[in-house]
């Protein structure tokens, strides 16, 4: 793809990546956005006026419920040479109330020849367009009567989109340099309307019969299997696909490409195919097997067969998100699907398996049972995220996915601890707000509260409940309370009679509390934002409990009025059986059977809350970790590290206490505890890197290296071990090399030179390549060599490691070049630009570049990646979250403060950014002297011990 650079005072210049002067990059922004963005309100401020000046007869963003679609007949003809498409949509309507107006969606397309096919004959309809709400009004001169059969037919034409949504263009280069063009769809959440006129809301489910016109050199795939191909005059072919079952518009998909595919059949008889560009088809075997295995797993687990005869998985060369669950045709980023057994890493394997598990989970959660509206997005995204772990735990025990789940809860808590957070179920109206729902709250918090509920109800009861939910609401739309009802009184439900034997046996055996009000408990987690901090104080046998909202703010009044029903779990020094207690009130007291040395709440962090051990609590835990850390599980240790450092941020615990606790990490080996140790300690020096305080920064870096030196030294430079061990190895060696730990740098340098001398043919152990590339990319020659290999590699996971290594270098001109390359999208795809910008922003030599780039190109970025998308939010928060000075806060405020509603001023990520920087400033003001003193004391002590 080529970006057009608008040079002030001169005509538009098309500059390809190779000839573009690098210096222009920051001086010349991309052309400003011309696309009008939507305002905030659900209702137009003034009476809406259609494009032709006539009043538009509907003034809301949501469509009226007077008419709904039953069936769509779609014929789509993309032209991959002229990069546009035409189509015909014939929609069968269900008229619920007499009306002469049909309101539906269409966005940025020309509409023509609109007809009403009524029982009394065919008549033209008058069309009004209201682009502001992406709506069309079709006006009939006679009334459409309730209960009678009508159809509308519309012809339409538009350009293939240059973004990553709607019906969009994608392209790739073959190894011989030829550029091939294809077209693919991404409709979630509100982009089906940009591909064909439709009732584009999730509750308007209908059947779709799709036909695609293509050239013989291409193939077309869609949600359903192809039933026949018809030759058209002029040599074009028309593929006819079978009619879908009832589904929402956002799940419709079709692709026209030159892809190849591989296929297998599941035990349940579903044909699975994986599609990719021809030169990467040999990297599809892993995904094919995983999809077969996981679809069979879900078929069994949900006790509902997969609804379609086939499922295709397609790796799309240009893709904004990670993957999309279109019914019968899920789509993926190439890195999310393609696996090379010799070159892909353990974490690639884990990632690919999880993405497939996620999209296949949606075939039930989301596709079969769909949220009524986007406010309850979590009902599918929280579930799919959660099911990634449930399905892998059972189908791929060797991946030990359990080692990673609590990372999701930490991620969720990070955004949920700010006052800009929002409840899991949140009212949303316009497309930007809908996009913003695809965040860590819907996904990660959603998954964590489901996990907490499963732990509380027991896995068996939970499974029965969710199966009842899926069966009860198949082909329908739901709100959160439908789920809670299905999880209440599971053993007394009539549905159970038809359920499986194992569930009936479970209910016969177990005396489940029948009066349990699941809804009352769960409403406290989905209808209010944030999460509780439970303070625990042990006095003899008495355990005093209290709850309050954990919030990173100066203003204590903001924490008032929150109350959760918290399923507490705990164990003590005298009993490692898990004890349970549902804390419903602000304070309560528990009595232990005997006095104990320590208590640990939130066992294995199966709950979504933080715990503060008041009084002597933290000290007894620190003693335990120092002397016998394996008395607690790795997850418990990770949880304690997280909690203690997070409590420093809100002034509940002194920094010294948290640092004293961190000392035990020199004996830690479990992945989650180690990475959480890094996760809390590394940001401290990352903040300093963006300020002028090299001495303390280096002291802190030295402390962390010292802490993990033993573990780093014990790492083999091979690919041996379990997935967790391998993921940990990559992580540790990368850290050690980036931190200039001499043994690591020496070894990586040797290996890089050997690899370079072999012209890249030497096969390095996969786990260590990241560390080796990062060291190689430190010199201009090494960087250039890596870049040459990047250009020509067809292995997506290798390319992705090379790309990261290239952005970690301290060579400023190379960093600029990277951002430049990704902007032009030739050698490095524009889909990777956000990742490159974020990676450069974490680099002490690149953070200014990243911030300047973000500001200078804001309008183009939001046009390309869409306002409110997680791509944009991620870039905004990640580029700025390591700033900790008032000057930087002012600069950030001044830029985002200058935006208008149309250019994103209302985005939640801006508030998150302000709050995060304010929190960093507070942290530094309070804790820098303490950190300095503690590190001094420690180095003094260590020097003393060495004597
Ligand atoms: N439904 C989403 C894809 C999506 C994301 C559509 C944002 C519209 C806006 C899909 O199921 C999904 O959640 N994809 C994830 C990957 C997954 C493994 C968590 C993604 O794209 O990040
Ligand atoms: Zn999803």
From TrEMBL:
The Aminopeptidase N-like N-terminal domain, residue ranges: 69-251
Q: Which residues bind Zn(2+)?
A: 358, 362, 381
EC number(s) on record?
A: 3.4.11.-
Q: Where is this site: Transition state stabilizer?
A: 443
Q: Does the keyword Amino-acid biosynthesis apply?
A: no
* Localization, UniProt: Endoplasmic reticulum membrane
Q: A Gene Ontology MF term for this entry?
A: zinc ion binding
Gene3D superfamilies, alphabetically?
A: 1.25.50.20, 2.60.40.1910, Neutral Protease Domain 2, tricorn interacting facor f3 domain
Q: Where is the active site?
A: 359 (proton acceptor)
Q: Which CDD domains match?
A: M1_APN-Q_like
* Name of one Pfam family that matches: Peptidase_M1
Extent of the signal sequence: 1-35
Per the annotation, how and in what number is the cofactor bound? Answer: Binds 1 zinc ion per subunit.
- Give every ERAP1-like C-terminal domain span: 598-918
Q: What class of enzyme is it?
A: hydrolase
Instruction: List the keywords (alphabetical).
Output: Adaptive immunity, Aminopeptidase, Disulfide bond, Endoplasmic reticulum, Glycoprotein, Hydrolase, Immunity, Membrane, Metal-binding, Metalloprotease, Protease, Signal, Signal-anchor, Transmembrane, Transmembrane helix, Zinc
For activity, the cofactor(s) needed are: Zn(2+)
Q: How does it sit in the membrane?
A: Single-pass type II membrane protein
The segment(s) forming the Peptidase M1 membrane alanine aminopeptidase domain are 286-525
One GO biological process term: peptide catabolic process
PANTHER family attached here? Answer: ENDOPLASMIC RETICULUM AMINOPEPTIDASE 1, PROTEASE M1 ZINC METALLOPROTEASE
Task: Tell me how this protein assembles.
Answer: Monomer. May also exist as a heterodimer; with ERAP2. Interacts with RBMX.
Family of this protein? Belongs to the peptidase M1 family.
Functional summary from the UniProt entry: Aminopeptidase that plays a central role in peptide trimming, a step required for the generation of most HLA class I-binding peptides. Peptide trimming is essential to customize longer precursor peptides to fit them to the correct length required for presentation on MHC class I molecules. Strongly prefers substrates 9-16 residues long. Rapidly degrades 13-mer to a 9-mer and then stops. Preferentially hydrolyzes the residue Leu and peptides with a hydrophobic C-terminus, while it has weak activity toward peptides with charged C-terminus. May play a role in the inactivation of peptide hormones.
Protein's name according to its UniProt entry:
Aminopeptidase
Gene behind this chain? ERAP1
